[in-house]
Every structure is written in structure tokens, then in C-alpha cells.
Amino acid sequence: MRFFFHHLMAWPYVTEEMVNKYDAAWVTFPNKHYDPEKGVKLYERYLSELEYAEKIGFDGVCVNEHHQTAYGTMPSPNIMAAALASRTSKVKIAVLGNAIPLRDNPLRIAEEIAMLDVLTNGRIISGFVRGIGPEYHSFSKDPTLSRDKFYEAHDLITKAWTEEGPFEYYAEFTKLRYVNPWPRPVQSNPHPPIWIPSQGSLETIDWVAKKKYTYLQTYSSISNVRRVFTMFKEATLKYGYEASPFQMGWALPIYVAETDEQAKQEARRHIEYLFNDVFKMPQRMFFPDGYLTLKSTQKVLESKKGIGTSYLSFDELYEKEYVIVGSAKTVREKIKKYQEEFGFGNLLGMMHFGTLPHHLTIKNMDLFASEVMPFLRNLGENSMNEVAAAADNT
């Protein structure tokens, strides 16, 4: 297994009064509540936590993109990846991901990821996302076009990475006389790895399986994780191959303490802040009309029921295993159980969440790195060998 520290860089200063006053922590939440002086210290703190992940043995660190929200203060994940490029030397840096339908010219993303890949000598993982519903309100974009724009942007970016320029690119949304990006990425077999985080739409699962990219499941109950990974593995078989563990990833908040009860006590309020205070938004904002296809609407709405749109207590999140919280023994036993059932090879732990203070974040990371990761490293090794053997025989 490979272990990544996924940081959301949440704004931790949303008060109960603010939560009660506004119907969302996204889009319309007034930016007068952002204090740049606190932001300076917060960025330095969060970057230091990501830098520390390399020192204690994590395989990678992850940043992502959200706009006009207290939920995450990274409107440009590529800028954060650039900051990490000079603060780290070994870990993979996963940009999870660029919301490619929101860029008017996706060629800029091809250029920026190539720059990052050269800066890091090939340590970049390029995540592509459509962006969740609030992003389409933030940029006044038509959500009914998001999937078509996503596919077109993806095709342009990968072509720019893999074909010699200059060449022309004329499609529905993007028309370019010259595509000839400098620099080109270091990773050229055939391009930087592409990971696709998703809420579990049927179309995304099928498309990722067809492309043989890495699929990441986020913010889900364990029953939904089970359903989605089963669907993904069935989709890969439909396309004539068996998914390797490293083609599947699971992202969720994780907290480790000395005992189960201490872990619950220390994590409770900070988990609830993440899922309720800064995730808060009306359903019409989370899923604007046309964002989901009719085919996926029922499944996605069922799987995401309550997230962001109603209060979810820590106890419910714990019982349904949206989060894994406990002693090192409990955490590693749960992860081992689900890895053996689902077969994923990438675990993206949100070791910081919500208002979790720095000292508890570091304690969480240290316990996870020393008492959980070493016991789980070899999980999935047999599956990898079986997939490799099958590939050799085809």
C-alpha cells in the first residue's frame, strides 16, 4: 500500500454565530470573515505539516482546488504544489485536482502541470475533476456542459503532453491555432499519472476504467465505498483487464490516539466542524440542475445524503465509517479489513481536518506513521503480483 497525506487547508475560524447566520460556507459566505494576517500563519502551518509528512515516511502529499469557501483555502492547487516542490525532495505531490471544465483555456493546465513535473523531477500526480456544484455558482458556469467540457479539456491536455507540437486543436469549446507547450513533462510513459477523484457517478466510474486511470472515492459511508469499488472492478473487467490495487484509492479523515475513547474525544468536534460548519450548503448549490445525469442522480444523491445539506453527528459519521478514528490497533485493523475486501492500494488520509490544532495533527501523523503504516505496507502485494502475471500472459 501507499500512504498519502491529503490536506484540505480549511479555514478554522468559522464561529457558531456565523454558521447560524448563513445558509452556506460556500459562494455567498462573506469574505469579510477571512483575515489575511491569520491566513499568512495558516498557510505556513499547513505547508509545514505537508512537509513533515515526507520526513516521517508518507509516500505522497495531496492538495486540491475549491473556490470562494471556508471549507478549503486552495483556489489554485498548482500554486500549493509549487510551494511544496521546493520544500520536499522525495514524496509524490498529487494535485487532486485541477477542475478542468472551469478553465477557459485548458492548455494552461497542461503547461502548469508540466512545469511542476520538471520542478520536481517527475514527482507530480495530476488529478482532474469536474469541480463540485458550488464551483459552477462561483464562476457562473453552465453545469450541463461540465462533463463535455471535462472530456474535451482532458483530451487537449493529454495530447499536449504526448504529441510533438506545434499542432492545431479545434473542438467545441476550445479552438487553438498553435498547441506547442514548453516545457514538456519529465514523466513521459506516456505522461504524468492521472487520478480521478469522484463522488461515484456511473459515467465517471466507467470512463476511468476505460482509460485505465486511478479512481479515488471520497467522502462516503463504508457501504457506498463497497458499492463503488465493486462497480469499478466490474467496469475494468468489462474493458478486458483486472484493476490493480494502485488503480484504486480511498480518501477519508483518519485520527489516531492512544486509545479508542481518547481518539473519539479528541477528534469529535473537529470532524463535526468539517462535515457541518464548513461543508454547509443548500442541496441546490451542491447539485445544481444539470450537474448530474439522470442515470447517476439517484445513486449519487443516495450516497451523499446529508453531507453538507444537513447535520451529521460524529457518532453517525463514525458508525457509518465516513471516518476512521481510534487507537493504532483499531485503525490498522479496520484499514486491513477493508483493503483485503476492496483491494485498494492508495490510502489518502486526511490527517488534518476542520479545526484540528497543529499539535494534534502532528500527534496523529506520528502515530499513524509509526504504528499503522508499517503494519499495512505489504497489503495488496499478492494482488499486484497476480495482475502482473496476468499481464505477462496476455
Detailed description of the structure:
The chain is an alpha/beta fold and 394 residues long. It has a single domain, classed as Luciferase-like domain (TIM Barrel, Alpha-Beta Barrel). 46% of the residues lie in helices and 15% in strands. It contains 16 helices and eleven strands. An eight-stranded parallel β-barrel has the order 1-2-3-4-7-8-9-11, surrounded by seven helices. It has a two-stranded antiparallel ribbon with strand order 5-6. Helix 3 links the parallel strand 2 and strand 3. Helix 2 packs parallel to helix 14, helix 4 packs across helix 6 and helix 7 crosses helix 8. The two termini are 25 Å apart. The relative contact order is 0.14. The C terminus is likely disordered.
Please compute the radius of gyration using only Cα atoms. 20 Å
Look at the structure and give the mean pLDDT: 93
* CATH top-level class: Alpha Beta
Strand order, main sheet: write it out. 1-2-3-4-7-8-9-11
CATH architecture label: Alpha-Beta Barrel
Q: What's the number of domains?
A: 1
Helix content: 40-55%
Spans of at least 5 consecutive residues with low confidence? 387-394
N to C succession of SSEs: EHHEHEHEHHEEEHEHEHHHHEHEHHH
Largest sheet: 8 strands, parallel, barrel
Q: CATH superfamily, please?
A: Luciferase-like domain
Tally of individual helices:
16
The count of β-strands is 11
Q: What's the overall geometry?
A: globular
Structural class: alpha/beta
Q: CA-to-CA gap between the ends?
A: 25 Å
Task: Find the CATH topology.
Answer: TIM Barrel
**Beta-strand residue fraction:** 15-25%
Domain Luciferase-like: 45-340
Organism: Ammoniphilus resinae
Protein name: Alkanesulfonate monooxygenase SsuD/methylene tetrahydromethanopterin reductase-like flavin-dependent oxidoreductase (Luciferase family)
InterPro entries: Bact_Lucif_Oxidored, Luciferase-like_dom, Luciferase-like_sf
